[in-house]
Structure prediction request, 452 residues.
Amino acid sequence: MASTARDGFTSTFGVFLATVGSAVGLGNIWKFPSLTGTNGGAGFLLVYLLATLLVGLPVMIVETMLGRAARANAITTFEREAPKGQWWWKSIGWMGFAAALFILAFYSDVAGWVYAYVFKAAFGELTTTDPKAAASIFGGLVSSPGTSVFWQAVVLVVTGAIIMLGVARGIEAVARKLMPLLFLLLLVLCVRSLTLPGSAEGLAFLFRPDFSKITPGVILTALGLAFFKLSVGMGTMLTYGSYFRENQNIPGTTARVMLADLSISLLAGIAIFPAVFAFGFEPASGPSLVFMTIPAVFTSMPGGTLFMTIFFFLTAIASVGAMLSLLEVPVAILAERYGFGRKQAALCTILAVAVFGIPAALSNSVTADLKLFGLNPFDLFDFLSSNVLLPLGGILICLFVGWIYGLPQLRDQLSNHGDLSNAPVINAVFFLVRYVTPLSIAVVLLHGLKVF
Ligand code: TRP
Prediction:
């Protein structure tokens, strides 16, 4: 049933753009700067880079490969590729299903803030460089229960409607149009931020590491961010891989997606941190950092209101691309395994996200004291997905490919049945996913969670 009429991406470059569309999102514009700020700057960035190269990219390559090999959703793929009797591998897919709901719960909340900021920017409500005023605008938004839930609902309706249009038309069309513009606006922001008086301190914060700030918790957070930014560890890349073309160069495409994703994050960092120091914001402000600093930079340049509006609009679109790829995991599972129509599957997933999402959206008001492990619902879903489920999914995917799937099949798949001469790359990937990557994730996970 699943393999006969599967939708797919229609061109090699379209595959690249759609995959970038999944990877680039609030992870780059919002999460990366916030976490870099709260975790001490350059040292965190360095660990994050290592995690991306040694862990994120290898997982991305083999996860995408598995999906293309099986041409199926995150659960069915493991059913097809695992040896008979080893049914437990498909729990990776179920973990991904759960992780998708948890991530969407808080992601839709932050996307809602972005949507709200599009309108606030357009109406000139954000034109301030004063940290106190900026903090009160953001605080007013997130601490109002009605407003937070309203914007989250708008996000879920918009995203649900787009996913119902189908993979190739919906996702590709959206992803194709936005990236270059967002990139350009970020460049403009960087120039302005770097020319502000007092900006040098921000550059030092971002690029001169202070190694004393690197703790096991910081390393786990950097690792979680690497997974989150590349959309790996929970079946998104696997599901996208299942729509890849047969002749797509997987190591090449994923490496380019990783570089594009990294460049956008670095630009966001360079746009934000010099301004943070120039205007006297607190680098460790957390989730509010971007929402206060970006308007301040725009306010200090000509045409600020217009550009600010466009910026938040493009960020909203980037968040749509990422959310579509998150939704695709449960939607493909429900459609291919349980015979749901795509529309029905999308609707059910959106409703499930709302169940988790509403408590998350109320985390700065009604549910602020509803704590588990000392975390409110928003922080809990974030922590549980990025710092637990994604790394765990990453370990299991690596162990599966490194020890069960094996080198001969990996060679066949990653070389497109011998069409590509990339043997050294494949050997390196195999060595990493068999030993280095799972072991590093395990050590970081156990240390970071204070298991030892
Ligand atoms: N990578 C996206 C971002 O940076 C978010 C995302 C999309 C994601 N799909 C994912 C994160 C799968 C983890 C897993 O905004």
Observations:
- The mean pLDDT is 93.
- The domain at 12-448 is CATH 1.10.4160 (Hydantoin permease).
- The CA atoms of residues 96 and 234 lie 4 Å apart.
- The chain has one domain: 12-448.
